[in-house]
C-alpha cells in the first residue's frame, strides 16, 4: 500500500486540524481485521488491528502485535469521520472513511502547541498480513530465534560516549517473526514481522508512535540493521548470544554521596501539596515511581504496580507516582493523571512534578545521581532510607527478563515489609 500523493496528504493535515470538507453519508467502519501503513519520513511502517463493536455497539480498535493486544475507543465525529483516542498518550487518530471502506488519516499530538510527530496513514479492512502478502513469501536464509547483543553504531556527529548495548529477543517460525528490543530505559514493546531470504522486518504500534526494525542476516550469521520510531533510524550490529543481558538495572542510578534519604514536595491531582516526610508515609515501605503518562514503559510499569499495590497496601506499603508531563500546566496534568488513575484503578498518590525534559529530574530531586530513564523506581524502607533504585522497566513481552524482575521485586519487598518499625 502506498500513501497517497502530497495533495491528499495536505488535505489530511488540514482535516486533522478541524477544517471541514464535504462529507459522504453513513459510511460504517467495517468490523474485522485491518492492515494499515504509517508513513514515517520516507519509510512505510505496516501494522494490524481489529475493529469490533464494544459496549453500546461503539467500535473498539484493537492493535495486534504478537501476543499483545491494546484496545482504543473509536468515536464517530461525523458520518464519515472518526477519532481514535490513544489512551494515556495524549495522541489521537483523525481519519475519514472512504467510499471503498478504507480509512485515511493522521496521528497527531493532543498537547497544545505540539505540532511534531504527525504520522499520516492509510488502512484497509479484510487484510491480515503485515509485510508480505500470502503466497509471496521467500524462504528464510536462517532461523534467528534467540537472544542477540545489539551494538548501536556511533553517530559520527555525536559528542556523547557510545550508547550502551541493547538486547534483542526473537522468536521465528518459518517466515513469521516476533521480537522485542530491550535497553536500559525499557523495551520496544512487542514487534511483529517476517523473515524473507536474508532480510527481516518488524513493526509495532501500541498507541504511542509506530516503531520498526529492519535487518539483514549476514554470511557470518551476524545481523546489521536499523531501529526506528522516527525518520532518523538508529543503526546497529548484532551477534547471537544466549547469555545476552542488560547492565544491572539496580546499579545505574544512585543517591549522591552523603545521602541515604531524600525528600520532595509536589501537588497531587487536586493541587494538595504532598511530601515524602508526611505522617502518612512514616514507618512505611514506600515505592516511588518517576514516570510520565506519555511514556509506554511507564504505562507497562503501572500495569504491574497498580494491582500489586492493591494486593499489598494493607501490609504497611505506600506508593507515589512522580509524574513529569508534556506540559508545565497543573490543569493539563490533572487531566492526564486522572485518565491514568481511572484507567488502571491506581490507588496510590499521583503527584505532578513538572514538565519532562532537560535536567528537570536533577533539579527537582537533587539527591538523585545519574538519572537515566523513565520509569525509575526508588524503594524506601521503614526507616526512611533508600534501599534500591531500579532504572527502566522490562514488560511482560520480554519473557524471562520480566519474570526475573518480578521474582526479585517480590523477594525484596517481602523482606522490607517484614522489617520491624524503627
Automatic annotation (TrEMBL):
<dbReference type="InterPro" id="IPR036249">
    <property type="entry name" value="Thioredoxin-like_sf"/>
</dbReference>
<dbReference type="InterPro" id="IPR000866">
    <property type="entry name" value="AhpC/TSA"/>
</dbReference>
<feature type="signal peptide">
    <location>
        <begin position="1"/>
        <end position="24"/>
    </location>
</feature>
<keyword id="KW-0732">Signal</keyword>
<dbReference type="Pfam" id="PF00578">
    <property type="entry name" value="AhpC-TSA"/>
</dbReference>
<dbReference type="InterPro" id="IPR013766">
    <property type="entry name" value="Thioredoxin_domain"/>
</dbReference>
<feature type="domain" description="Thioredoxin">
    <location>
        <begin position="255"/>
        <end position="411"/>
    </location>
</feature>
<dbReference type="InterPro" id="IPR050553">
    <property type="entry name" value="Thioredoxin_ResA/DsbE_sf"/>
</dbReference>
<protein>
    <submittedName>
        <fullName>Peroxiredoxin</fullName>
    </submittedName>
</protein>
Amino acid at each position: 500500500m502506498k500513501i497517497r500523493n502530497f495533495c491528499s496528504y495536505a488535505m489530511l493535515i488540514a482535516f486533522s486540524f478541524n477544517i471541514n470538507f464535504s462529507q459522504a453519508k453513513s459510511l460504517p467502519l467495517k468490523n474485522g481485521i485491518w492492515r494499515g501503513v504509517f508513513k514515517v519520513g520516507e519509510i512505510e511502517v505496516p501494522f494490524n488491528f481489529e475493529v469490533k463493536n464494544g459496549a453500546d455497539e461503539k467500535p473498539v480498535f484493537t492493535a495486534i502485535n504478537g501476543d499483545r493486544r491494546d484496545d482504543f475507543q473509536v468515536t464517530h465525529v461525523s458520518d464519515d469521520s472518526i477519532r481514535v483516542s490513544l489512551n494515556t498518550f495524549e495522541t489521537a487518530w483523525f481519519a475519514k472513511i472512504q467510499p471503498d471502506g478504507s480509512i485515511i488519516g493522521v496521528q497527531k499530538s493532543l498537547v497544545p502547541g505540539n505540532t511534531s510527530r504527525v504520522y499520516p496513514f492509510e488502512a484497509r479492512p479484510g487484510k491480515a498480513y503485515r509485510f508480505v502478502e500470502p503466497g509471496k513469501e521467500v524462504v528464510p536464509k536462517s532461523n534467528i530465534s534467540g537472544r542477540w547483543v545489539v551494538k548501536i553504531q556511533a553517530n559520527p556527529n555525536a559528542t556523547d560516549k557510545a550508547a550502551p548495548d541493547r538486547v534483542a529477543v526473537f522468536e521465528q517460525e518459518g517466515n513469521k517473526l516476533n521480537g522485542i528490543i530491550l535497553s536500559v530505559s525499557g523495551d520496544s514493546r512487542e514487534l511483529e514481522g517476517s523473515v524473507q531470504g536474508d532480510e527481516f522486518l518488524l513493526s509495532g504500534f501500541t498507541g504511542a508512535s509506530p516503531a520498526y526494525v529492519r535487518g539483514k542476516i549476514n554470511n557470518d550469521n551476524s545481523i546489521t540493521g536499523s531501529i526506528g520510531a522516527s525518520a532518523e533510524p538508529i543503526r546497529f550490529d548484532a551477534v547471537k548470544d544466549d547469555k545476552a543481558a542488560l547492565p544491572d538495572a539496580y546499579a545505574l542510578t544512585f543517591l549522591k554521596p552523603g545521602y541515604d534519604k531524600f525528600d520532595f514536595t509536589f501537588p497531587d491531582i487536586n493541587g494538595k501539596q504532598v511530601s515524602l516526610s508526611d505522617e502518612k508515609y512514616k514507618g512505611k515501605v514506600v515505592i516511588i515511581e518517576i514516570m510520565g503518562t506519555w511514556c509506554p514503559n511507564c504505562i507497562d510499569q503501572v500495569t504491574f504496580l497498580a494491582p500489586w499495590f492493591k494486593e499489598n497496601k494493607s501490609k504497611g506499603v505506600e506508593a507515589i507516582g512522580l509524574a513529569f508531563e508534556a506540559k508545565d500546566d497543573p490543569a493539563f496534568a490533572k487531566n492526564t493523571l486522572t485518565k491514568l488513575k481511572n484507567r488502571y484503578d491506581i490507588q496510590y498518590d499521583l503527584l505532578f512534578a513538572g514538565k519532562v525534559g532537560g535536567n528537570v529530574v536533577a533539579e527537582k530531586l537533587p539527591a538523585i545521581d545519574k538519572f537515566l530513564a523513565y520509569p525509575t523506581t526508588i524503594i524506601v524502607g521503614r526507616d526512611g532510607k533508600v534501599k534500591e533504585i531500579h532504572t527502566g522497566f522490562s514488560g511482560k513481552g520480554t519473557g524471562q527478563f520480566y519474570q526475573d524482575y518480578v521474582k526479585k521485586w517480590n523477594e525484596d519487598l517481602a523482606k522490607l515489609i517484614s522489617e520491624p518499625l524503627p
